[in-house]
Amino acid sequence: MIIGVPQEIKTHEYRVALTPWGARALTRAGHKVLVQAGAGAGSGMPDEDYAAGGAAIVTGAEELWQRAEMILKVKEPQPVEVQRARPGQVLFTYFHFAADRELTLGLRDSGAHCFAYETLEVDGHLPLLTPMSEVAGRMAVQEGARFLERPFGGSGVLLSGLPGVEPGQVLILGGGTVGTNAAWIAAGMGARVTILDIDLERLRHLEEVMPDNVTTVYSTEEAIEERLDRTDLLIGAVLIPGARTPRLVRREHLSRMRPGSVIVDVAVDQGGCVETCRPTTHEEPTFVVDGVVHYCVANMPGAVARTSTFGLTNATLPWILRLAALGPKRAVEGDPALRTAANILGGHITHPAVAAAFDLPAEAPEEAAAALA
Fold this sequence. Notes:
The chain has helices at residues 20-28, 47-52, 61-67, 79-84, 101-110, 130-147, 177-189, 200-209, 221-228, 305-334, 336-341, 352-357, 365-370; strands at 2-5, 32-36, 56-58, 70-72, 90-93, 113-116, 169-173, 192-197, 214-218, 233-236, 262-265, 286-289, 292-295, 342-345, 348-349. It has 373 residues and is of the alpha/beta class. It has 2 domains: 2-126 and 306-370, Rossmann fold (3-Layer(aba) Sandwich); 130-303, Rossmann fold (3-Layer(aba) Sandwich). The longest helix is centred in the last third of the chain and has 30 residues, at 305-334.
């Protein structure tokens, strides 16, 4: 199979979908790898390293998309890339379709086969979402602490506190991978941390492994509301695989928060769990609503591109090799995990949560695959 790796064009996205050693693994497996010139530069991976791994360097994105049978990306295709997708072409990346109707309809109508990193499931786990969730969770506290500083519009709270001055309060909505990693970093800084979740078994686990300055609470609307007035940093870390994130914090709730408090909504790429959330970029990462600073960057890990690219390829490469070897039809018919990654196949939406987000019809992936050549 001819596999193409374009340069990411989302604003301030510096990651790349494949490392040079990943290109070497694919070429050794008999595939041809095309890498757009400069695609790895933002992650500190020069074209020469890809060429040494057996990849061919292609100057333009248009040529790469035309030649490649399978496209590997990091972020969802941008509008110009949706136009480049063609019938029968395989796209493997993070899509987060449920937050973007235009993207969903555009790629459905393109006839391409879309396999999403974020819905690939193995034994109840999401192994391709995990590494970027780990990065985003850790970054959420790092960025939240920065924007709590007064020069950035924050309340001037130091999360760690200091002798004689109490530490900051961090409220985390969701105890999954993002929330757990955020809690570790915030706790390590010395903040007082509260994690809310509706999974009691998860809360029991977190209670066992977290340090003493982390408290777990069963999540209800009342539990959220009564903590907002003492929250300095709120982190949205809710995930429902493939579906739009439920909105747990509404506009009227912001009046309970102190001016200069900060919200970091990591769930923004799935629609966000804060009503006032809207996607931002690393170029203009924040905005203020009712005195509360909102940080809603949809590609947070892109800021630490080298770490993120290695973490991503470590997780995705085995599945890239498998998908490339099987092709979309056999992958869906014979591999249960890749079947869960299939969101759109040949003009049919095949993930029920994506279809439900826009009240569109869904077809079982096996049925859609049966119609493929």
